[in-house]
Amino acid sequence: MSNILNTENNEKMPIRGPFMAFDVGTKRLGVAFAPKGALVISPKETYKRVKFSLDAPYLIKMLIEWDIRTLVVGLPLNMDGTEGAMCQSVRDFVTNLQNFDGWPSNIAVFFQDERLTSEISEETLIKDLDLSRAKRKGAIDQMAATEILKRFLEENNLLT
Fold first, then answer.
1. H helical segments located in the chain
2. 37 with 19: CB under 8 angstroms?
3. Does residue 152 or residue 15 have the better pLDDT?
């Protein structure tokens, strides 16, 4: 069963690159990118959130500058697959972003199950990169976004 959960406005929008993924948290937002053709997925940044009225223009500008056509947003489902309060918060964030002035109407938005992406990312950062706790804190979010995008592309047979 696919973990991809469409937003309501995607029925006529194709899945195509370039791709970007967001791992939305209350304090930080991890960003990952994959070009058209999806040969490589790259962690891009960890954005420190301020307030929505400042976050939205920054994120929209980034989507436009990178010419993104598909945005994948991690959905923090409970381990049993149900949606909790944080899922609703992420859904509200995406809805508000899509309704914000300047949102590009040519971007398809999908939600992707993000269960355990932060844990997998932290384990990788400890084991493979031997990063300190302080350095891991910022890197985990963009690595989680990378894992979210990887799962989405794999499930849609788009990772070449």
1. 52-65, 85-99, 117-127, 133-155
2. no
3. 152
SS3 151: helix
Q: What is the DSSP letter of 24?
A: E
Place of tokens 């995406």: 94
Does the 4-155 domain belong in CATH 3.40.50.10190? no
pLDDT, tens only, 65-96: 999 999 999 999 887 888 889 999 999 999 99
Among residues 72, 40, 44, 66, the alpha carbon closest in space to that of 138 is found at: 44
Mean pLDDT of 94-114: 95
3-class SS at 40? coil
Q: Are 140 and 118 in contact (CB under 8 A)?
A: yes
Residue 16 confidence class, pLDDT cut points 50, 70, 90? confident
List, in sequence order, every residue forming a beta bridge with 112; answer none if it has no partner.
Answer: 4, 74
Cβ atoms 32, 149 nearer than 8 A: yes
CA atoms 60, 74, 153, 117: torsion sign: positive
